[in-house]
Structures are given as structure tokens and as C-alpha cells.
Amino acid sequence: MDCTSVASLGCVDLFVRQMGPDPFAAPPLVVIHGGPDWDHTYLLPGLIPVSSYRHVILFDMRGCGQSTRGLGPDGYQPEFVVEDLARLIRTLGHNRVDLLGFSTGGQVAQLFVEAHPDLVGNLILASTTAYTDVGQFLAGWEEYERRLQVVAPWPAWMDFPRGEGLEDIQGTEQWAVDAAPTAIWNLGRIDEYLALLGEVRFSGEWIGPFREGRLHPWRPKDPERVLRDFDGRILILHGAQDMGFPVQVAERLHRAVPATRLSVIDQAGHMAHFDQPSAWAATVLDFLAG
Fold this sequence. Notes:
Layout: E1 2-8, E2 13-19, E3 29-32, H1 44-50, E4 56-59, H2 78-91, E5 97-102, H3 104-115, E6 120-126, H4 142-148, H5 168-178, H6 180-183, H7 190-197, H8 207-211, H9 223-229, E7 233-239, H10 247-256, E8 261-265, H11 272-275, H12 277-288
Parallel strand pairs: 3-4, 3-5, 5-6, 6-7, 7-8
Antiparallel strand pairs: 1-2, 2-4
Helix pairs in contact: 1-12, 2-3
């Protein structure tokens, strides 16, 4: 099964993709993408293998991909994504799901289990953080400093030149391309990664509220407490060479919430599902199997 639909939730319509076997044979794995202003498609390299064994539900956040855009300056807050997802889960007929949040989506997942712990069985926090002070782990990292100087090839699907003063959607696209050398670990695959980005329907809806300082925090006030109080199982899944949220933040969270399982994938950066899709998918499936 690999099908798409649009779920009408009243204030927004969410674009939904479902893959894999019977969605009611076991709790489906619902996935929250990162960005924001990206869509779900860049996560497919790791999730297509997962969908061979478990039903996977992906969706585009409000303002992203093929979901409702143009909601205005007051239409974008992390807690709105949380409530959209709660309505989506119920609309699709599920009372309980497993949840995977990637990068920014992993922070939304922490907000979600704070607000709706009853809807989540297993929680996977992938390439994400519960903390704000991540820069200290990048300072002095020679490989990170070297990669900041690497200029990614300008892909053919970018129909405008590099520059400043771009429209918000173009700024999002340029940031994604420019960040490629630090997003993946194997630079020999950078053209392949840029081709993957070419499939993403970027937007610029969340940039305005962010730039104006109006966005509420993406994570709970006390994420450690939220995760300790959560009754379900938690996997912290991270790339050993993550240059977005360095692996030290994953190790710190695991120490603070000892009941979590920590899995670190070597030779993998922030986009660990792209760098090591087989190992990433196998880790997810092993955890979900209990």
C-alpha cells in the first residue's frame, strides 16, 4: 500500500501519505517531519524500508508541502501542529499510534506526548534535541569548520541564482542546499542528496513568525520531566556525526531519562536516514518489535 489523501480537519487540510501493510494490524508509525517549511518526502529513504513491515503514516505540517498554506501571521505555532496531529490520528480511525519525530519534528513529538500521552505507545526521537545549548558541541570541531567552507553544487532544479534578499520560499530552498555539506556525512553522495531535496515541496510560511520572534518554543519547558513521565517506550536515534544536533545532546538526554534506549549510527550525520538507511530502518523496526 502506498497512497495519498487529504484529511480535512476544519481549519486546515493536511496532505497524508500512507505506506505499508494493514494500518490496523498493529499501531501505525506516524511521522512528524522537520524543517519546518519542508515536507515529508526527504524522509522516505529511511521509511520506505520500514513500511515493508509496519504501516507508516506521513503528513505535511500546516503551511508545508501540499497541506494548507496562507494561514496568515497568527496561523503558525508548534502547538497548532500538535493539535492538527491529534485530530488527524482520530480522523484516520486510530486510538493509539507509535510516533517518530525527526529534527524539529522530534521537538514537536515531545510537545505531543506532553499534551496527548494517551495517543502514543512508542516514541522515537530521531536526529533531534531536548535542549537549546547545542553550539558548545560544535565549537572547535575541525571537520564541522571545514564543511562550513564547502560550497554545495547548485542543482538544476533551483531556478534562481544564489544570493540575498530572496523570497521566503527561495530562502528556504537555498538554506537547504547550502546546509547539505553539514547535513549528510558522506560527501560523495551529495549529488544524490540534492536530487532528494529536489523532490521536496518547500515553503516559506514559517519564516515570517520565526523572523519576527513570534513563534512559541518547539519543545516543552521541561522536556526531561515530560519524557520521564511518559508511560511508553522511548528510542533516541542519532547519527554519530550529526552536525545539526551533535550526538552529545542525545547522550545527555539518555542520561537524564535512563529508561530511554539510545542508538547511535556510525558514519551518519543529521540526515542519518539518508546516510545509513538500512541501519536506520533496522533500528526503528527492532525497537517497534519490542
